[in-house]
Amino acid sequence: MIVTRFAPSPTGYLHIGGLRTALLSYLWARRNGxxxxxxxEDTDFSRNDEAAALAIVEAFKWVxxxxxxxxxxxxxxxxxxxxxxxKLLDEGKAYKCxxxxxxxxxxxxxQTARKxxxxxxxxxxxxxxxxxEGCEAVIRIKAPLEGSITVHDGxxxxxxxxxxxxxxxxxxxxxxxxxxYNFVVAVDDALMGVTDVIRGxxxxxxxxxxxxxxxxxxxxxxxxxxxxxxxxSEGKKLSKRDGAxxxxxxxxxxxxxxxxxxxxVRLGWSHGDQEIFSMEEMLELFxxxxxxxxxxxxxxxxxxxxxSHYLKNMSNEKLCExxxxxxxxxxxxxxxxxxxxxxxxxxxxxxxxxxLTGEILVAPADFDEAVLKKGYxxxxxxxxxxxxxxxxxxxELHLPSDYHHxxxxxxxxxxxxxxxxxxxxxxxxxxxxxxPGLDSVMAIIGVEExxxxxxxxxxx
RNA sequence: GGCUCCAUCAUCUAAUGGUUAGGAUUUCAGAUUUUCAUUCUGGUCAUAGGGGUUCAAAUCCCCUUGGAGUCACCA
Length: 460
What we know:
This protein is mostly helical. It has helices spanning 16-31, 50-63, 78-90, 101-113, 163-166, 181-191, 207-217, 247-252, 257-265, 279-285, 301-312, 316-323, 336-344, 350-361, 369-375, 380-393, 400-414, 418-430, 438-459; strands at residues 3-6, 35-40, 72-73, 94-97, 138-141, 148-153, 157-162, 171-173, 196-200, 223-227, 230-231, 296-297. Helix 1 links the parallel strand 1 and strand 2 (35-40). It starts with a strand and ends with a helix.
């Protein structure tokens, strides 16, 4: 069985890059009928944040990714890590190091000054004497001293690391007894039965260390897939300063989960010329071995396009429901079908749609001089009056086409082009020179409101 | 700086060693629309550079250049 996991550290919210690796992990597990686990990496108490895990769960819920089983918190698994650290101690695969932090720092400084690699000097590796007094010990694992470690990566291929270049006896438990990252990751992934580790390629250089832990503990290695980073427009790793990195921001901006997921899955992965992927299709087609090797730049233009695509193809019921989050209540509106049809083709986001809806439903508060100058000419008033009269004389005005007929008749009667009536009427109804079809707008707000808005403009 | 990874249009990406290097987004032009948007049609735009290997290289190898990631008692 394939078991994957998403293991964020709780830093406040779900990062867009995190969502991508979570999605890929999710897809691969689900595609194989496996499990997708969620684990919160909170071993560093000083940076712990209770709300963070909740934020991640909330974001998962919004996009519709479901994890299996309970959420594991590393902070509640301390006893487990201690047990395995002790095991390594007992077996002589790890040892206590009494070197004070200050000395370590000093050593590192010297080495750096000599342009050498900063590296622990193994002074306590084979220590058997009496421990110095008043010294809190850290636990270090015995890393190989020579040779190489090869990461067999499903994305990058075999990556060989020379032990002398990258390793030393790294710390697996701090002086206060809490375990460190590379140790707990390996222990947890092994204990939780994770078979396929799909994560950002910023972890590639950690992997040899984790392999050391796996091997010391006698755990079988999982498959690794290191997914390239998402870069910002400057070509650097995406960070908080790059605007919307919080997944939930996309909800408030009016993107749909379908569009976001579709966008993310296409970053670094593709299937021929296909651009639109439903969740079903992703599940059917995704395979981590097809992930690209190179980083991709985060550019939301395509996300906008995808989002408008999904909006256009969404049922009005669903739109109505989603629009509530953006403060638009249409459930009981009798013309909501016409409204939504008129508005969904011209909005890139739900937020935009909410604005457009408001512009139709609420009469313009005032009129912009520049707009009037451009679209409300000398003859406009007479035309609008004629149109208002025609509306009053007409009966059974319900559909956009009913209003369209009235417009046609007025245009024919006055022997003018559509533009002559369209511009001023649009100003009267919407207060601007662009927008949805006027016949639809009138059908939505009804005859009375239409007449009232025309009157407001004429009487100003 | 050490180690590691990466390199096709502006962006996301296709291309059993053999294609006029394809698609999508963006952009531009035209058509449709009373307007805007949508939609449709069409156009512009790429194999980082240099060496090899080969009948044939975007594709394999080497070098250069450029970019990124990582080097903690953070995760």
